[in-house]
């Protein structure tokens, strides 16, 4: 992997295979690659984070503002200090890379739980489906405690927000599924009623 004469994609495959075989002995090489500008830096940092279980928050703070979206994604994924989580919250609405926005959402929910709801709200109406799935999976994973907030967003929010809220509710079984049944039958907006039906697999039944 340290042989710079090889193509980057080959070096990446060698690095991944070698790391899987022997994590600890490769740490010095990983550390060196993580400081080297170029294609492999993000991959090396990700491997180091998996080896150590974290990245230093000083490094995360630096990477959160890096021009490379891959580095910002890794940094967002490993943000844990108050300052870095605040920066991650700003990236949810502003970063041009969907991978960064998704990683920031996941970190915020992991550390703030339901208190992250307003911080991650922009992700509910994100134009990238991967970000919608990330926020629905993360917030839905908190379980019944988020149902009230999701119901309010579904009913009072935009159609895009309601769509992602329905996706989150569909993952909370059985209470979330029950909430979708109520929304499919009683939401004021017909489009949102159809949306709730679709989220629980009842779209065809409600469209006739």
Explain this structure.
The chain is 71% helix and 0% strand. The chain contains 14 helices and no strands. It has helices at 8-21, 27-34, 39-52, 57-63, 69-77, 82-94, 98-112, 117-124, 129-140, 147-156, 159-169, 175-186, 190-199, 203-206. The chain is elongated and about 60 Å long.
List the topology elements.
Layout: H1 8-21, H2 27-34, H3 39-52, H4 57-63, H5 69-77, H6 82-94, H7 98-112, H8 117-124, H9 129-140, H10 147-156, H11 159-169, H12 175-186, H13 190-199, H14 203-206
In whole angstroms, how far apart are the ends? 60 Å
SSE pattern, N- to C-terminal: HHHHHHHHHHHHHH
Strand residues, percent: under 5%
Percent range for helical residues? over 70%
Poorly predicted runs of 5 or more residues: 202-208
Per DSSP, the total helix count is 14
Structural class based on helices, strands and sheet pairing? mainly alpha
Query: Average pLDDT, to the nearest integer?
Result: 87
The backbone outline, from C-alpha atoms, is: elongated
Radius of gyration: 20 Å
* Major β-sheet annotation: none
List keywords for this structure.
208 residues, mainly alpha, elongated
Offer a quick outline of the entry.
By secondary structure, the chain is mostly helical. It has helices spanning 8-21, 27-34, 39-52, 57-63, 69-77, 82-94, 98-112, 117-124, 129-140, 147-156, 159-169, 175-186, 190-199, 203-206. The protein is elongated and about 60 Å long.
